[in-house]
Design goal:
Strand content: 5-15%
Number of domains: 2
Shape: elongated
CATH topology of the largest domain: Topoisomerase I, Chain A, domain 4
Helix content: 55-70%
Oligomer: single chain
Low-confidence stretches: none
CATH architecture of the largest domain: Orthogonal Bundle
Structural class: alpha+beta
Order of helices and strands: HEEEEHEEHH
Number of strands: 6
Largest sheet: 4 strands, antiparallel
Strand order of the largest sheet: 3-4-6-5
């Protein structure tokens, strides 16, 4: 392979890896019925006038599969943290006992499980679109090497390598989505 084709391949691989990493982040936000500290990663708290991630103003932990606790670094932040969690639209209702926030994670209904599975599929489809866009960009870059004197065989081999890379990443996405759906639908 010529240097330009290798560069296009490496760039595509990097973009596809970023897409799967982003998928993993998004899938962690979709709860599967069990309490997990990552459920609150998207919560931003009004900390003295600026929106701050929850993990910077308190410690989130699990006490059992159905309960999260938030220990604020400053006791005065318990109420702002509780309102931030409530306003985050996660379906969670924190209780303040004066020391920590206790959050009971409700059981998922069948309808909600189906909704979350659909959301996981949507996130997976977005990742596949990103992977296909990376493939298109790489193929365009490989075709542009023809003007630089690359042979037809080198271009075909490069496109073939890009396609097999794309297939591998799409299989990874499908496996992650299937795993998440199984996790969500398990009662």
């Amino acid at each position: 392979m010529s240097e330009m084709i290798e560069l296009a391949f490496d760039s595509a691989k990097e973009d596809m890896q970023k897409a799967t990493d982003r998928l993993d982040l998004e899938l962690r936000k979709i709860r599967a019925g069990k309490a997990h500290p990552s459920m609150l990663e998207s919560v931003k708290v009004d900390y003295y006038g600026s929106l701050t991630p929850l993990n910077q103003v308190g410690n989130v932990s699990t006490t059992d599969p159905r309960t999260l606790t938030v220990q604020a670094y400053e006791k005065s932040m318990l109420d702002p943290i509780a309102s931030a969690i409530t306003n985050a639209n996660l379906g969670l209702n924190p209780m303040n006992n004066g020391e920590v926030l206790i959050i009971s994670v409700p059981m998922l209904t069948e309808e909600r499980r189906r909704e979350l599975a659909k959301q996981a599929k949507s996130v997976g489809e977005n990742a596949k679109v990103s992977i296909r866009n990376a493939r298109k960009d790489a193929n365009d870059a490989i075709k542009a090497t023809k003007d630089d004197g690359a042979s037809e065989d080198a271009i075909k081999a490069g496109e073939s390598n890009i396609q097999s890379l794309t297939d591998d990443y799409v299989k990874q996405v499908d496996a992650r989505i299937a795993s998440k759906e199984a996790d969500i639908m398990t009662v």
